[in-house]
Amino acid sequence: MITKSSLLKLVVSFTLILLWLPSNAQYPSKPVRIIQPYAVGGSNDRLSRIVAQKISENTGKALVVENHTGAGGRIGYELAAKSPPDGYTIIANDPAYTMLPALYGSALSWDPTVDLIPVSKIGEWPFVLVVSPKLKVSSLEQFITLAKANPGKYNYGSSGNGALVHVATELFAREAGLNLVHVPYKGMGEAVTALLGGSIDMIIVGTSPVVPHIKNGTLVALAMASSKRSAVLPEVPTSAEAGLPEFVAGSWIGLAAPKGTPHETILWLQKEVAKAVSSPDVKKSFASQGVEPSGVGSSEFSTMMNNESKRWSDVIRAAGIKAN
């Protein structure tokens, strides 16, 4: 015979099960916003939108990219780091995130090392070193010889003081033993335009904005800053082939979430990112931009970020780089 006390316990237990199920089985139950800390149209923006759209198609859940730009990405990162850890605000992060402690330290009102949790790496792409045809060089060795013979004469462009391209070029200069002059611009679009116009001598940049210019001969590619050749520029030697094996630099994009975001939510996002970037249409879109899909999970992504943070911090401090 069921007593009143037993019946009450059953009702309570059943109610608790019903309350538990929606929060775990139905995530996300509303749109998830992906904070994009850079402007519309850039590589990171395009890639984050491709993946958000694919996950939405695969799951029927809305993932919406919102651009919150400024201060080299810090505005977007701070917004994400201080958002509720409920899984409904995440951020598309990149190598600049790993440089924040070395560039800003205690000036930040939040801690980049703990306040955002790595979720998954979406994709990565190498940098290519390109020069103006006016230099009349066709190999990295020739450029290094020319620059060593004229210390302080040749310059390079970047998207700003403390930007990834700035730090990566200082790594190149250190490995090659060169004295190059830094010319910061408001973005890599301006830097590429300056190189095309002959105002600067070289840049180190992702392949996407310069491949057409390399193909038509208005820019000269000297080396890929990677351990393997690029599928979109197979004729360009790697840095190791060109004599600088330690000059390895490139960019990547991933997702991170505020500290305290439920583990089940992180796992859901990891699974959906991996599924999205392995789909044939996303792979094709990535390949056209020289991007290699990833999809690695939180643990491996976290280890990679920690290693990059140490590596870039060493370059930043050795070169005395200051942020804008």
What does the model show?
By secondary structure, this protein is α/β, with parallel strands linked by helices. The chain has two domains: 30-124 and 252-319, Bordetella uptake gene, domain 1 (D-Maltodextrin-Binding Protein, domain 2, 3-Layer(aba) Sandwich); 126-224, Periplasmic binding protein-like II (D-Maltodextrin-Binding Protein, domain 2). Helix content is 43%, strand content 19%. It is built from eleven helices and ten strands. It has helices at 4-25, 43-59, 74-81, 95-104, 140-149, 164-176, 188-196, 211-215, 263-277, 280-288, 298-319, and strands at residues 32-36, 63-67, 89-93, 116-131, 155-158, 181-184, 202-206, 220-224, 250-258, 292-293. The strands form two sheets. Strands 1, 2, 3, 4, 7, 8, 9 and 10 form an eight-stranded mixed sheet that branches. A two-stranded parallel sheet has the order 5-6. Helix 6 links the parallel strand 5 and strand 6. Helix 2 (43-59) crosses helix 9, helix 4 (95-104) packs across helix 11 and helix 6 packs across helix 11 (298-319). It is globular and about 95 Å long. The relative contact order is 0.17.
